[in-house]
Amino acid sequence: MAGIDAAFADVVDQFADVLTEALCPPGESTSGGELARLCAAPSTVGSDDDRILAMMVGLARVLNLSTTALSQVAEVAERAGTRRRKRLKSPVELLKQLGVVPALAQRLVRVGQAARQMPGLMSRARVGGVPIEQADAVARGISFVQKRVPLDDESLADLVRRLSSQATPKDVDNRARELAIEWAPEIDETDPDAVPVAENPDLNEMTLVTGQDGRTIVSLDTDALSGEELSQALDPLCKPIPQPDGTPDPRSASQRRADAHAQIIRDYLAGRDRPTVSGGVLPHVTLIVPIAQASAETGAAQESSRVASLGFTGPVSASTVGLVVCEAAMRRVVMDADSAPMDVGREHRLVTAGLRKALEARDRGCAFPGCGRPVSWTDAHHCTPWSEGGDTAIDNCVLLCRMHHTVIHQTGWEVFIGHDRHPWFRPPLDPDHPKRFREPIRSNARRTMTLEPTAAA
Ligand SMILES: [Zn+2]
Ligand SMILES: [Zn+2]
Question: Which UniProt keywords apply (predicted)?
């Protein structure tokens, strides 16, 4: 057995070496460089389509084969206990440690686990005929149907056959959903334990994926009761809010729902009764701030980032950093040039309870003209940023809901405390009339809208 494993590992190594050689530019390798040469001078390939296509077909097969093999070896590693000995919390973590991207790591693990349930598909996969995405779709389809319909060996084999004959992963997903409905057992009304699908929390699923562009995509499949609670929580927060000039809320229903969801999450994060992370800290947001001066003195060639990052979702622009540091019980981690954390601590210029009360009495909710969201929804914004010497004081702070706080940080709107010691808002420059005076608008608290700064009393 050990001999076979060693031979397998040797062949894999040799194959990787051959590919590396082929990709190495001439001069950097001793004997290879063929592929690199072709890429540098495609004209030398001539119009030998057959040869080019044969190379592509072969490599596509190798791609399928290596992902299939990796999914199988990942399953072997799990059963052999390799992952536990490495003290990693999941098989996906083990693959990620090896440099496999998270989405692929999850696919590989799912296919490895489901391989025994789909022997027919795997026999095609073992000759390189099945892309890992397709095998994964079938694996997911099996688990989807299995959760909803009791399957014996025969119907499982039938299911795998039906799913495997689909052309694309999307088709597999749709077929699995159709079969789950077609095959769903009749609910036995006399069985007190029978749970209708709509009400079965065992089927609940939520995925949370941050893409390459830094946006996070959430999908949620939940039972009727949890769905009802979600709608109850979101509904009052989804109401349209008119613009300062009285025009209707420009946000679509789905934008308002997304804003409402974000509001609920912030309320939750602001609460005290939630599980803490290490050290009893309750961070709203983890911001990783690199030290501006990278390793200039050491002359280290290593690329080091000057862009701040959020803990889960990655790099963000300066305007978002400004919003985060403006007011958040935020956990900030400062990185040194070697990306080692130097200082982990809470920001210390938070608004005190007394100041917060005074702001609530003055602004009575989001101060942005026409908004009026309640005080419990608001952040205290520093008109002059704390980092630029602005005080955490009543004459430098204003309550803004998150939507309008974002507007202030990310667009041309400005807010200042007027001589009446109330907030005033200055709209962005009109690009058609760049010289026109930007009339300030009163805060929301005075209710009536006016352009007359002295009208406040
Ligand atoms: Zn702010
Ligand atoms: Zn607002």
Answer: Endonuclease, Hydrolase, Nuclease
